[in-house]
Amino acid sequence: MAVPQGCGIGGYGGHMVISLKGGKKITAIDFNTAAPAAARADMFPIEPGGAVRGRINSVGWLAAGVPGTLAGLQLALSRYGTRDFREMVARLFTWQTRVFQSATAWAEAFRAPRISCEKIPPQRSYSSRMETRFRQGDKLRNPDLAKMLESLARQNSVEPFYQGEIARQIASEFQTHGGLVTAKDLAAYQAREVEPLESEWRGITLRTAPLTAGGLTVLQALSILKALGWDKLPASPSRTHALVEALRLSWQDRLQLLGDPAQVEVPIQRLLSDEHAHRAAARSKRQSNNAKPFQSSLRPGRKAGRFT
Question: In which element (H, E) is residue 224 found?
Fold first, then answer.
C-alpha cells in the first residue's frame, strides 16, 4: 500500500477491482464513504476567495462521512474469500504493537492532522505524542484498535461496527462534537458489488471501478488521447501539450458533471463515447496549436535535471 498513513477503518473507504478465474470474471466492490442523511448542499460556506470557511469540509467532524472500509472488506471476503472474518482479523491483533520502518511518511502524517485533532481530546493526545516522539523503528501502539478488532472477531462480523455498541459510540461522538453521522446512517450503510467500467488502449483491456471512484476520468482522458492518435505522435512539446489538454478537459468534466450516481444522473456513456472523445480531441488540437513556445526558466550555465 503506497500511503498506509492515509487509510483506516474509520476513514474514507474506497473501491477494489477483483479478477477471478484467471480473468474470466472481473468485478468491483464500491465501499466509498457515504454522506450522512443530514448533509446539505449549503453546509460548507464559501469565502470570497473560493475557499471553504474554516476548512470545515476537510477538517473536523463535519468533514467526516459514514466509513465504508470494513463493510467493503467484509463483502469481498464473504463473496470471494477463502477464509472467514475471524481468521483474517486474528492476524491483525499484533498490530497494536507494530514497528514502522519508514519514518518520513509517518512522521509527516502525524504532524499534518494536528490542526484537525485539536478539538478531539483522544486523538489530540495520541497525535501530539507521536509528533514529539516518533522516530524510525519506534513501536506505534494502538490498544483501542486492537480491542475493537477483537470484539469484531468474536462476532465474526463487522456488524457491531455498523449496528451494535461500536456504532452507538461512534454516533454519540459525532453528536457531542457537532458532526452529522447518526446511528441510522451507520446502520443503513451498504457496500455494493458493481460492474467495472471498461476501455481499450493499445490492445490492452483496462477495467476500473465505476463511480464513485475516479477511474472514469482516467478512461475519458485515454479516449481523448486515442482520438488524437497520441501514441503515434512524435515526441515533441505539442505531443506533451496534447496530453495535458486531454487531462485538463477530462478533469473539467469531472468537476462539472460527476457526482454520486445514487443522487445525480451522470452521463457516463456520453463521456466515454467516441463522439465526445473526438470533440475533446479537436479542442485539444486547437489549444496545442495556439500554445506559446516553452520558455526555459533555467539561468545561463545551469544544467537541467532529467525529466521522467
Answer: helix 215-228
User: Are the beta carbons of 156 and 84 closer than 8 angstroms?
Assistant: yes
| Helices (H), ranges, 52-182 | 69-80, 85-90, 103-111, 114-117, 121-133, 143-155, 159-163, 165-176
When the candidates are 1.10.10.1320, 3.40.630.30, 3.40.50.300, 1.10.246.130, the CATH number that belongs to 197-290 is 1.10.246.130
Distance CA 92, CA 71 (A): 17
111-170 pLDDT, tens digit per residue, is 555 545 555 555 544 454 555 555 656 666 777 888 888 889 999 999 999 998 999 999
3-state secondary structure of 42: coil
pLDDT, one tens digit per residue, over 193-226 is 999 999 999 889 999 999 989 899 999 999 999 9
The string of DSSP codes covering 15-34 is EEEEEEGGGTEEEEEEEE-B
